[in-house]
Amino acid sequence: MASPAELLATPAATALDLARLRDDFPILSTKVHGRQLVYLDNAATSQKPRQVLERMRVYYEQENSNVHRGVHELSERATAAFEGARSRVRAFVNAKEVREIVFTRGTTESINLVAQSWGHANVRAGDEIVISTIEHHSNIVPWQMLCAATGATLRVIPVNDRGELELDAYRELLSAKTKLVAIGHVSNALGTINPVREMIAMAHSAGALVLVDGAQAVPHLRVDVQALDADFYVFSGHKMYGPTGIGILYGKAALLEAMPPWMGGGDMISSVTLERSTWNVIPYKFEAGTPNIADAIGLAAAIDYLESAGIENVEAWEHELLAYATAKLSAVPGLRLVGTAANKAAVISFVLDSAHPHDIGTIVDQEGVAIRTGHHCAQPAMNRFGVPATARASFALYNTKDEVDALVRAIEHVVEIFG
What Rg do the C-alpha atoms of the chain give, in angstroms? Predict the structure, then answer.
């Protein structure tokens, strides 16, 4: 059996050798309805390579113990692996300090943590929070809840017909009242890559902080939180070849230190008496209870996998796939693309004149092709483009042009059925 160190050292590929990469993902050999699986739902969740699955198995078989509290050997192994994962995340996003990395259950929990902790400590009646029209619900609802509780106002950046944020309108929204801007790095519904570095600089000039939802960015782009100068940056493990139930909140140390804890319990305390409690240092102040140890370790293995493939290689290949798929799908009669920004990640949303997106998804599934249909937890974006839902194909490093062709054939079949 491979040791943890050997597993973490296993390269996924020295370049994007697709055959080798695909062999790392056991589920890609699965058949659906008697056909070879074509998995194009990566914006919802990505598949997991053997290296991640094996690393988690080794944890459970050789290291399983609670962290931080034990002096026995297994606890020390588990703690070393868990804190090693935190260090791996720090390096991955280039945070200045490891204590700026907080483990959460995912992007949604990370955003809610900031809204509940920083938000309730800093936002008051008359203040404003700025979001955009194309945010995921997870980056809308927590701010609506905060505004309702505090009397603050939610302001919204409009989006043009291509799915690009209107920066002139954004500039006009910023004022001395703006406390926070919460924006997605990449739109899950449209694939738009927002100019977050420029938007962060604009917000800082107005005296506002910025939270960036990076769930759809970290699997596809090189992210450097210091270069972006993000105050908070959040993402999930399961969209970047890691396990579900693990996510990251990056926050500048000074901000995290000033924020109150949002959950109470074990490990987030320094001392407890029946009269009062004092809090642990960051990041532990925000990690109450037994953490998701195995999945944090799995996330570190996923980062190693992605880095070994090369983020720049992944980005280049996915861009090639996106261009190929855009040309192929645009040629399908009655098909309209929704979201045609000049700068996009590997997401294509579309509608057909003749068929509802749910019918599209059902029929292409019968041909082994997995796509996502619906509003993609982005109903304001759907409303902006005048559609109740779209069909969405989203790509990962293991997808191929042959799979794009299979998608196109399946959609052409939908057109034949509905006329």
Answer: 22
Distance, in Å, from the CA atom of 32 to the CA atom of 40, rounded to the nearest integer, reads: 13
Tell me the C-alpha distance between 262 and 173, whole Å: 30
CA torsion angle for 126, 196, 184, 165 (degrees, to 10)?
80
Distance CA 316, CA 311 (A): 9
Question: Residue 283 to residues 39, 238, 384, 410: CA-CA distances in angstroms?
Answer: 36, 22, 39, 48
Q: Which residues pair with residue 102 across a beta bridge?
A: 249
Strands annotated E in 61-177: 101-104, 128-132, 153-157
Q: How far apart are CA 313 and CA 230, in angstroms?
A: 25
Euclidean distance between CA atoms 40 and 54, whole angstroms: 24
- Inform me whether the pLDDT recorded for 6 exceeds 70: no
CB 414 within 8 A of CB 352: yes
Buried-state track 335-346, b at ≥16 Cβ within 10 A, e below 16: bbbbbbbeebbb
> Which tokens belong to 366?
């019968």
**CB within 8 A of 27, min separation 6: which ones?**
37, 39, 47, 48
Per-residue pLDDT reduced to its tens digit, 22-32: 999 999 999 99
CA–CA dist 47, 50 (Å, integer): 10
Question: What does pTM read for this prediction?
Answer: 0.95
pLDDT band at 10 (very low <50, low <70, confident <90, very high): very low
Give the confidence band of 8 by pLDDT, cuts at 50, 70, 90. Answer: very low
Band the pLDDT of 13: cuts 50, 70, 90. Answer: very low
Q: Per the omega criterion (within 30 degrees of 0), is the bond before 283 cis? A: yes
Residues assigned a catalytic role = 377
Token duo for residue 23: 């062999």
Alpha carbon dihedral 373, 377, 382, 383, in 10-degree steps, equals 140
Q: Give all domains of the chain, ordered by start, each with its CATH number.
A: 4-48+310-418 (3.90.1150.10), 60-307 (3.40.640.10)
DSSP label at 67?
A: S
The string of pLDDT tens digits covering residues 154-211 is 999 999 999 999 999 999 999 999 999 999 999 999 999 999 999 999 999 999 999 9
Cα-based distances in Å from 150 to 140, 182, 183, 255: 16, 17, 21, 20
Q: What does residue 317 show for φ and ψ, rounded to 5 degrees? A: -65, -45
